[in-house]
Specification:
Arc Repressor Mutant, subunit A; globular; mainly alpha; 7 helices
């Protein structure tokens, strides 16, 4: 039986709010999409996204401050600054892919271009899914939230 107060207390510990605070803003996601697609310089982001310079500067600063992007001298032209994804930033790739796939299915209702493919086989990637320890794709009804303290110790 579900103790609603215990469940509410557990939900308050969930990291979704903190994650959204770090990157949950439209321009930040579009900047990250650009970074995943090889954009590195302020001017590249600005011209590709059509974002106002002050907003871009603010969002890049936040992403650097939060350790998602690193700001470093460009190795080709030391007078320029390059923005590179950190490990923390690269770990957002499945999030962006899932969000794109959701948008294709429920918002635009059509596949978008360009298509993300497996570089080895040149075939479109599979739909992102939540998977069990054994690799099975899980539906919402096959999952539940539990207190970490209730997990079996290995």
């Amino acid at each position: 039986m579900l103790d609603i107060e215990h469940h509410r207390a557990l939900l308050r510990q969930c990291s979704i709010a903190a994650a959204l605070e770090a990157v949950g803003e439209r321009w930040s996601f579009l900047i990250l999409r650009g970074a995943f697609n090889g954009l590195h310089h302020f001017e590249e982001f600005q011209s590709t996204l059509g974002i106002a310079r002050n907003i871009l500067s603010n969002r890049l600063g936040r992403l650097v401050e939060r350790g998602i992007l690193a700001r470093e001298p460009d190795p080709v032209d030391r007078r320029k600054i390059a923005y590179r994804l950190t490990d923390k930033g690269r770990d957002l790739l499945p999030v962006l892919i899932s969000l794109r796939q959701w948008g294709e299915k429920w918002v635009s209702e059509s596949p978008s271009n360009p298509v993300l493919v497996d570089a080895r086989h040149r075939q479109p990637i599979q739909t992102m899914a939540v998977r069990a320890q054994d690799g099975r794709a899980l539906s919402l009804g096959e999952m539940e939230w539990v207190d970490r303290a209730e997990l079996p110790r290995n």
